[in-house]
């Protein structure tokens, strides 16, 4: 029983099930809270409230993107050191990553608060929606330090062996969000302000619960600035850049969709896209939960040189996200109207009609989204940030943005709806091409050769080049 859930020694299936189930529960709790948030707003305040949330998304995604970059990049690097048994360096990377993330969050909070009017303009809000966007953004900005630090901490809690705490914290945060949404939006009729405060208070709850892990000292990581140079933090951020690129690309793509939908179909079009986007969000978050779960597992096995275990985790993750994709597609095709009506009232007939047409052409995307996310996470965990970034940027920006401008010229509005499914197909082909020469065994052998070359340089330094030993000889 001692090693049942140990990433290095436990049964592959048991470890995967333990980590992934907990992470998926946490991710689904967060995404469900966001979806219920939108459902309350759509039913209580109508299309303008839904459009406000969508127009604000690019800013929220940008801020969250940096948090994901630092949290995932830092925790993967941390996991590799933990797998190799170097706890002190792992703790230093954790501490410095958290400090850098917090400084960024405070800076963005201060800047966005001062320049909120400019931010509203940059987000593309029309005069009719601008006041609502300004109110919503102003409140969310105040909670940025809590949300960003919480996201970062969640990854280190998982890599430190407590995925259950991370899942519980995310679930409790979601419950707080939903409860306050009901109180502020439904009962007190605070509208978009209530939704923003509900989100902010839930983020404070999440942060406090995660922080308790390090105060109680139940894991291996400690707050320690000694060891692990700042250059390693930069490298860790670079390794997590694919996650940042993925988030930023998704934010920019949302911005493009907002522009196109409001130009071609008005506020109803943006509201319809909001509905489809939340359905996509729910499905994607389950896949992200699985990919986030395997990252610390793979990074630890990478540090320990266990290629066969990494391959096993990849097969199980790939099969699981494929099953989830089929399940989501089945629900969308069998009951599209039921899904749509969760986010709006029966009076928004145009919005419902557009959303139904959107789903009819969009559903194939769910069959490939999960596989592409797993491929991207694999490369991040194996410290191949360029490969991971190629996949992330391809599926979140380059392919869909290109198709978004080309397809409508020939297919009209259907071209808008089909851009993302075709982009996922193109990305899947790219991911396979990148994986073939970068299997777990090949990357581990390459890493071992690199380490041996480094050891030889230390033992036999080149003439005139000082090393840690030759300086004192």
From TrEMBL:
Top-level taxon: Bacteria
Residues spanning the membrane: 12-36, 48-72, 98-124, 136-157, 164-184, 190-215, 270-291, 312-335, 362-381, 388-410, 416-436
GO biological process: response to antibiotic
Localization per record: Cell membrane
Gene Ontology cellular-component annotations: plasma membrane
Pfam family, one: MatE
Membrane-topology descriptor: Multi-pass membrane protein
Keywords on record: Antibiotic resistance, Cell membrane, Membrane, Transmembrane, Transmembrane helix, Transport
GO molecular function per UniProt: antiporter activity; xenobiotic transmembrane transporter activity
Family: Belongs to the multi antimicrobial extrusion (MATE) (TC 2.A.66.1) family. MepA subfamily.
Protein name stated in the entry: Multidrug export protein MepA
Naturally occurring in which organism (per UniProt): Aminobacterium colombiense (strain DSM 12261 / ALA-1)
């Amino acid at each position: 029983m001692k090693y049942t859930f140990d990433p290095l020694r436990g049964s592959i299936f048991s470890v995967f099930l333990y980590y992934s189930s907990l992470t998926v529960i946490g991710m689904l709790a967060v995404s469900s809270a966001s979806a219920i948030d939108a459902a309350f707003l759509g039913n209580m305040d109508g299309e303008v409230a839904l459009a406000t949330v969508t127009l604000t998304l690019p800013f929220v995604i940008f801020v969250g993107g940096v948090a994901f970059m630092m949290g995932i990049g830092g925790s993967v690097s941390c996991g590799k050191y933990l797998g190799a048994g170097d706890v002190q360096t792992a703790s230093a990377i954790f501490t410095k990553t958290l400090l850098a993330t917090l400084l960024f969050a405070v800076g963005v909070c201060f800047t966005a608060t001062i320049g909120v009017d400019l931010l509203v303009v940059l987000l593309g809000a029309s005069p009719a929606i601008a006041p609502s966007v300004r109110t919503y953004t102003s409140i969310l900005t105040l909670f940025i330090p809590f949300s960003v630090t919480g996201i970062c901490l969640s990854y280190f809690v998982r890599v430190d062996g407590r995925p259950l705490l991370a899942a519980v914290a995310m679930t409790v945060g979601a419950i707080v969000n939903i409860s306050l949404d009901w109180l502020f939006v439904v009962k007190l009729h605070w509208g978009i302000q209530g939704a923003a405060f509900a989100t902010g208070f839930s983020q404070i709850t999440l942060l406090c619960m995660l922080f308790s892990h390090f105060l109680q000292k139940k894991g291996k990581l400690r707050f320690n600035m000694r060891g692990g140079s700042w250059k390693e933090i930069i490298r860790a951020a670079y390794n997590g850049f694919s996650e940042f690129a993925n988030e930023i690309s998704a934010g920019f793509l949302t911005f493009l969709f907002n522009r196109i939908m409001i130009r071609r179909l008005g506020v109803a079009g943006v509201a319809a896209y909001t509905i489809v986007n939340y359905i996509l969000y729910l499905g994607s978050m389950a896949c992200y939960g699985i990919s986030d779960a395997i990252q610390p597992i793979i990074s630890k096995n990478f540090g320990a040189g266990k290629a066969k275990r990494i391959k096993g985790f990849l097969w199980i993750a790939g099969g699981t996200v494929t099953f989830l994709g089929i399940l989501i597609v089945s629900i969308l095709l069998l009951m599209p109207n039921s899904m749509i009506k969760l986010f709006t009232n029966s009076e928004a007939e145009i919005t419902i009609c557009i959303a139904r047409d959107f789903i009819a052409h969009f559903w194939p995307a769910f069959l490939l989204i999960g596989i592409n996310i797993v491929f991207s996470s694999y490369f991040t965990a194996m410290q191949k940030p360029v490969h991971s970034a190629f996949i992330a940027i391809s599926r979140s920006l380059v392919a869909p943005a290109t198709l978004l401008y080309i397809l409508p010229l020939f297919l009209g509005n259907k071209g808008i709806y089909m851009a993302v499914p075709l982009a996922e197909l193109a990305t899947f082909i790219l991911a396979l091409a990148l994986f073939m020469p970068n299997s777990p065994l090949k990357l581990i052998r390459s890493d071992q050769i690199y380490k041996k070359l480094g050891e030889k340089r230390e033992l036999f330094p080149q003439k005139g080049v000082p090393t840690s030993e030759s300086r004192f000889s």
